[in-house]
Design a protein that fits this description.
By secondary structure, the protein is mostly helical. It has 4 helices and no strands. This is Pyrophosphatase.
Length: 108
């Protein structure tokens, strides 16, 4: 699925199942909540925190997909074309960071 197809799928789902978009501020709060859920899993799985029983079986991919869904919803309702924005971001990172990471001894 392309980013364009994902944006269309989220829009269709929201209009058909979700009734309407939540406000941008509500979606920002939901996005923050979803990112927090990803952070909780990563801090326990890859960091120093120990798992709670309730977190042991949580699917990291599913939680990341929740972040993506809300981010796409925000893009849709604010008129952002994620395909174009992502391409521009990759160009920016490539030109800005082409030597920076290669010359970083901490990455070797």
């Amino acid at each position: 699925m392309t980013l364009e197809e994902a944006q269309q799928a989220v829009d269709t789902w929201i209009k058909d199942v979700g009734v309407r978009y939540f406000s941008e501020l509500t979606n920002l709060a939901i996005l923050t909540e979803e990112v927090g859920e990803v952070a909780r899993i990563i801090s326990r799985r890859y960091g120093d925190q120990s798992f709670k029983k309730s977190d042991e079986e949580v699917d990291l991919g599913a939680e990341m997909a929740d972040v993506l869904f809300v981010l796409i919803a925000l893009a849709n309702q604010t008129g952002v074309n994620l395909t174009e924005a992502f391409a521009k971001g990759m160009e920016k990172r490539t030109s800005r960071d082409k030597d920076r990471h290669q010359n970083n001894p901490k990455l070797r």
